[in-house]
# Entry
Amino acid sequence: MNLTSKLLAATALVAASSTSATELEVMHWWTSGGEAAAVGELANAFDATGNTWVDAAIAGGDAARPVMISRLTGGDPMGAFQFNHGRQAEELIEAGLLRDITDIAEAEGWKDIVNPLSLLDSCTVDGRIYCAPVNIHSWQWLWLSHKAYKDAGVDVPTNWDEFVAAAPKLTESGILPMAAGQEGWQQGGLFNVLMASLVPNEVFLSVYGDKDTDVAAGPEIARVFKAAADARSMSSNSTVQAWNDATNLVITGKAGGQIMGDWAQGEFAIAEQVAGEDYSCLPGLGVTELLSTGGDAFYFPVLKDEAQIAAQGELAALMLKPATQVAFNLKKGSLPVRGDIDLSTANDCMQKGLALLEKGALLPDFNQLVTPDTKDQIDTLFVEFFADSSMAVDAAQAEFVKIISAAE
# Structure
């Protein structure tokens, strides 16, 4: 399709939706302060088209996804919904429940602007595009409170080993060395950050991409489990549940640090903290600086109402518009999926992410490599591991190998 055809198709989409404005229910799991501010930018942009964003937020992806799937399979589809990039929507696409939006992607020229293109590939099944990627989120960050380390009389760590070494000094000062929420996705995610940051990329890819049980049982992964045991010890007195409550412990100086994705930036922004002054961020735990190319995408169920179908098209298109990408991602703490927009106003931490993206220091996201079932099994393992300090690292690694051996 040439440029003129793309522009004409885009104009037709806008015209169609503008003449039949309607309400569109949008489901997502963005409920923290920073997340709510970010999703508000998407809602405002959509409302400006004359349509109405009907917000249907459910806290937590693990709680939200089953509800969304039940709605879809039960014949009660919403207008649009958020999933992560990757394999979460495979069965829904196979069942014919999700709308093919290839025409919108082609009209908007997404293949020319999405960077890295693997984000669009994760929305593509059998050559057809089924979702609109809205951001790049990476898990591999260690967030550090300057106040906590100052109060403990220790220098702010610059890497994982220094973070572990500083823990006793924080404990002596009555400061929690490491904040961690008591939820499976957080604990499994923490382990996968250690996996991505403390072993070579080829080891990570051998385990999760090739499902190589010999590597999973080997010494490189044993090192990761030793680091997980250190994390378990440092966070043993962290009793909060939600990830943003754990982030708040870092913001208030009650905890030294937290391993969490770059969505934590939204919480620091809401608290008016300044990156590089009030807190530091270490991509790849200061060891292996890289980003996973995961994130969030919106899918659009098959609907019958023509006005809502048109509204879906307009929502999909505007999500990748330059103004929407800037407004949304600056508040979300994520990176834009467009490689052609100016983010010179981004803070120190986002600039680090942009620099890594520019030089291609990228790793496929965990969710792009394993099925939701495998993810759930790994999360369950680490719920048990973090809850039971007597669970030895070699026993946990043996269970991990069993999960990998059965993974698809």
